Amino acid sequence: MAKLGRPLAMSVDERRKEIFIIAEKLFGDQGYDSVTMADIATSVGMSKKTLYVYFKDKKELFRELVSSSYIWSDDAFHEQNLTAIQQLKNRLKVCAEHVLSERHIKLCRLIVSEHRSEPEITATFYEMGISTSRNHLIDAVKKIEQQHYVLKLDPEVLADMLFGASIAKPFVDVLMANQQINFSEIFDTIAKTVDALFVEHLKSCE
C-alpha cells in the first residue's frame, strides 16, 4: 500500500477563508461581543499568536469578513453580449441572490443584534456591503443612454427605486418574518420594474 504523503499546507487565502467561516459561525451563535480571538483561534485549530498574523484584532477580522462576502468576481455578472438594460436586469438578479442568501441574512441579523453595543460594525457593514451593492446598480443604470429613460431622474434615484421595488420587501420579509423566498417571483418583479423605467426598443422617427 502506498504511503500517504504529508497533507499540503493551506495557502494564505484558504486559511483566511477557513477563519472567516468559523468566526462567522461563532459570531452568529454567541454574538460578536462574546467571542474572543482566543475562541476563534481554538475553533480554527491554531494558536492565538498565529491568528494575529492574519488579523491584528477582532474588529479587523470582522471588517474583512464582511468585505469578503461582497467581493464580486470579474465575471460575476455575466454581461457579455447583453444590452445595457439587460445588464441592469442581470445585476439586480445577482444582487437579489446575494442579498437574500442564507449567509447574508445571518450577517444582517448579527449586525442588528450587535448595533447598540458595537456601532462600528454597522458602519463597516454599510460601507463594505450596502454601499458597494448600491454602487454596482448605479453603474449599471449609468450605462443606459438617457433616451431610454421613462423618468428623467438621476441614476442614483433610479437605482434606489429598482432595489426598493424588487428586492427590499422580500429582504425584510425573510429577515424579520423568516418567510420563504420565491426567486422566480422576484426575478419577474425585477424584469417588470426595469421595463417600467426604461424602454429597450425606441420607436424610429419616420
UniProtKB/TrEMBL annotation:
GO molecular function, one term: DNA binding
Keywords, comma-separated and alphabetical: DNA-binding, Transcription, Transcription regulation
Gene3D superfamilies, per database record: Tetracycline Repressor, domain 2 (1.10.357.10)
Any Pfam family matching the protein: TetR_N
Domain of life assignment: Bacteria
Domain (HTH tetR-type) ranges: 13-73
InterPro entries, A to Z: Homeodomain-like_sf, HTH-type_Tx_Regulator, HTH_TetR, Tet_transcr_reg_TetR-rel_C_sf, TetR_C_Proteobacteria
DNA-binding region ranges: 36-55
Protein name, UniProt field: HTH tetR-type domain-containing protein
Protein's organism: Acinetobacter equi
